[in-house]
Design goal:
The chain is built from 6 helices and 11 strands. By secondary structure, it is α/β, with parallel strands linked by helices. Helix 2 runs parallel beside helix 4 (143-154) and helix 4 (143-154) crosses helix 6.
Length: 206
C-alpha cells in the first residue's frame, strides 16, 4: 500500500489566539476557522481537504499528516510576501524595512533543509502512525530582531518603518515539536544566522 503525505499551514488548525501548537490537537478543524476573514475561502478549502484525507486513512492508502511552520531558504520568490524574503530584498536594495506593529511579536523560522528532513522521516514511520505532527522550529525571535539581523548581515543602510498591526496578526507563533522528537528523532539543526547567510547569498544573485 502506498503512502500519501498531506501537509498544511497551521492556520487551518488553530487561529491567532493560539500560540503554542500541539501535535495532537483536535483534527475537527472547522470550529477554529475565522468565518469572517479575508482568507476564509482558502482556509476552508485546505481544512476540508485535510479532514477528508484524514478520514480516508487505511481505506485507499496510508496517510501522513504534517503541519508545516514558517519555513525559509534559497529559491523563495523575491515577491512572495513572506517576512524573511521581504526583509532581505528590502535590505539588499537599501529600502525601508516594513514592520507591522511594534515588532515585539515573535515568529519561529525553520530552514528548508530541516523541513525536508522532517518530511522524509515522517514518510518512513510505521503504517499505523498518521499524525498530525508539527514540523517547525520552536525557537522564537521578535520580528524587530529579525529585521535588525538582516540589516547587519547585509550591511544595508535600510531604515525600519513601523506600520499598524493587522487585527488578526498573532503575537506569538510557536510549534510544539515533542512528538517529532519522539516519533521521528527529529529537531531542527540549522541556526537562524546560518540560514539567513545562505538566503542572503542566494538573493544577491537573483
Amino acid at each position: 500500500m502506498c503512502h500519501f503525505v498531506c501537509y498544511n499551514q497551521i492556520w487551518c488548525h488553530k487561529p491567532a489566539v493560539f500560540f503554542c501548537f500541539i501535535d495532537h490537537t483536535d483534527i475537527n478543524f472547522f470550529p477554529y476557522l475565522f468565518i469572517i476573514h479575508r482568507t476564509v475561502c482558502i482556509r476552508l478549502n485546505k481544512s476540508g481537504l485535510t479532514g477528508f484525507i484524514f478520514r480516508m486513512t487505511n481505506i485507499f492508502f496510508k496517510i501522513k499528516i504534517i503541519r508545516i511552520f514558517n519555513t525559509y531558504g534559497p529559491r523563495m520568490l523575491p515577491n512572495d510576501g513572506r517576512v524573511v524574503s521581504n526583509f532581505i530584498i528590502q535590505a539588499l536594495n537599501n529600502e525601508d524595512i516594513t514592520i507591522y506593529g511594534d515588532g515585539k511579536q515573535t515568529r519561529s523560522f525553520q530552514y528548508i533543509d530541516d523541513l525536508i528532513e522532517g518530511m522524509v522521516r515522517m514518510m518512513d514511520t510505521e503504517d499505523d502512525f498518521t499524525g498530525p505532527i508539527n514540523i517547525g522550529n520552536p525557537n522564537e525571535f521578535p520580528v524587530l530582531e529579525l529585521a535588525e539581523r538582516v540589516i547587519r548581515m547585509t550591511g544595508s543602510t535600510s531604515k525600519i518603518v513601523f506600520k499598524p498591526l493587522p487585527t488578526d496578526d498573532p503575537k506569538q507563533r510557536q510549534p510544539d515539536i515533542k512528538l517529532a522528537k519522539e516519533k521521528l528523532g527529529w529537531q531542527p539543526t540549522v541556526e537562524l544566522e546560518d540560514g539567513l547567510k545562505r538566503m542572503i547569498e542566494y538573493f544577491k544573485n537573483v
